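Example S7 (structure tokens).
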């Protein structure tokens, strides 16, 4: 049974969870229901996406989100695209929270008198049943300009089958296809999928899409908010596909005021191989962003920051992809968020690091004028803070003025003490 709510007269009665989204401007509080909060799109991602969609020309009509949860993404679309919204949500309480959240965003953006807001609806019901949804809208004619889908997936599962997505992708696409306004426009869709989909599952998603719109333009997008994690994996389709990219990596900045770093590639992923090589003093070691690695765009990025360098990958998996190379990276300010650490190897440490040998590392580090040394390799989590704390305490207030880190050579236990480039000591030109 479907039931339509208008954000203009939605009630907060019965909604008990009201929370500040850490990525939203202070005071922009959202309601959630039935444990919808962890499912909600962070405001910063929602706002950034809406801005990226606004760079494309959409057909006239509604923005449809057939599994709108707390309506955070939907509300961001409304305020940015100025299109009437149609959200559908199976849980009546979440549908109510969505309606209230759309109103909150309209208030926050002073859009309460705008047509998009006055003509928006949230329907509580099944997002795979367009007839049932449209019947609740009475005299509103529905043309879909853009469809967003962020299906629910099993929680606490590292990998999962596509069939577990709710609502199921194939049913959403097939049932809503007739409602798209395709006059002079390709259908526009954004599928917000699990960041844990495998390459084979991505191909499976593409074939589900092709079953409804064969050969539709497509761009895969990996979004990261840092810490080396892929936070979102999305497929942009048709009118919102990136004409310049089959794959795109978006590094969301810490602040909404800063622009994101966007990397694009028109090519298929270039496989990167680990190469065995002996440790060498004087070579450079860079520990790079694991999310960028996962997106498959690392090769293109290195073409820019390490042009004409043949790097040697020490590790391409896990949290610390490690590249060894002969010259410093040429980093623009926006590249810095994609580098965990980079520096030149000044010592090969032939002892394993523990509480009995940390003083030895301190004296080697002071010999290289280091004021700080960060441990950038996997260490027993119980030991790591003790060693790092001891290094920090002992190196502070001594004569060092440079920064460094310790990486692990991939073969054997050898540790590499590296010195980071500093402004006082500019990198030599290649
Ligand atoms: C990941 S959440 C969406 C979160 C949303 N993007 C936001 O910003 O808050 C997915 C939602 O899909 C809803 N859902 C699952 N099956 C559905 C169906 N058949 N029709 C409508 N909604 C459904 C779930 O109740 C859940 O709230």
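Recovered sequence:
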């Amino acid at each position: 049974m479907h039931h339509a709510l208008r954000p203009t007269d939605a009630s907060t009665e019965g909604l008990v969870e009201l929370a500040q989204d850490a990525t939203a401007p202070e005071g922009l509080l959202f309601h959630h229901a039935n444990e919808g909060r962890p499912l909600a799109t962070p405001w910063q991602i929602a706002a950034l996406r809406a801005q990226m969609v606004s760079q494309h020309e959409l057909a006239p009509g509604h923005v449809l989100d057939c599994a709108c949860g707390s309506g955070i993404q939907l509300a961001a679309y409304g305020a940015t695209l100025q299109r009437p919204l149609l959200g559908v949500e199976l849980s009546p309480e979440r549908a109510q929270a969505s309606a209230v959240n759309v109103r909150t965003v309209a208030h926050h953006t002073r859009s309460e008198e705008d047509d998009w807001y006055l003509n928006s609806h949230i329907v509580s019901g099944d997002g795979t049943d367009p007839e049932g949804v449209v019947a609740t809208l009475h005299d509103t004619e529905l043309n879909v300009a853009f469809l967003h889908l962020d299906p629910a997936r099993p929680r606490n599962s590292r990998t999962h089958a596509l069939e577990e997505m709710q609502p199921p992708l194939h049913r959403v696409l097939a049932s809503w296809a007739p409602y798209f306004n395709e006059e002079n426009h390709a259908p526009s869709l954004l599928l917000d999928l699990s960041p844990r989909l495998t390459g084979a599952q991505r191909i499976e998603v593409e074939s589900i899409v092709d079953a409804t719109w064969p050969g539709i333009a497509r761009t895969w997008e990996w979004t990261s908010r840092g810490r080396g994690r892929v936070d979102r994996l999305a497929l942009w389709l048709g009118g919102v596909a990136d004409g310049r990219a089959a794959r795109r990596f978006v590094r969301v900045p810490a602040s909404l005021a800063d622009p994101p770093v966007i990397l694009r590639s028109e090519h298929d992923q270039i496989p990167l191989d680990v190469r065995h090589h002996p440790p060498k003093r004087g070579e450079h070691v860079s520990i790079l962003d694991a999310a960028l690695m996962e997106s498959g765009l690392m090769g293109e990025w290195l073409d820019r920051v390490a042009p004409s360098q043949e790097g040697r990958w020490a590790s391409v998996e896990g949290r610390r992809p490690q590249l060894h190379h002969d010259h410093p990276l040429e980093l623009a300010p926006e590249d810095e968020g994609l580098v965990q650490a980079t520096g030149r190897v000044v010592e090969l440490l032939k002892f394993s690091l523990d509480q009995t040998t940390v003083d030895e590392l301190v004296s080697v580090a002071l010999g290289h004028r280091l004021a700080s040394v960060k441990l950038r390799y996997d260490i027993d989590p119980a030991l790591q803070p003790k060693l790092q704390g001891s290094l920090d305490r002992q190196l502070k207030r001594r004569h060092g003025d440079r920064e460094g880190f310790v990486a692990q050579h991939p073969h054997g236990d050898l540790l590499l003490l590296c010195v980071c480039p500093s402004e006082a000591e500019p990198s030599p030109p290649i």
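Notes on this example. Confidence is low (pLDDT under 50) at residues 426-430.
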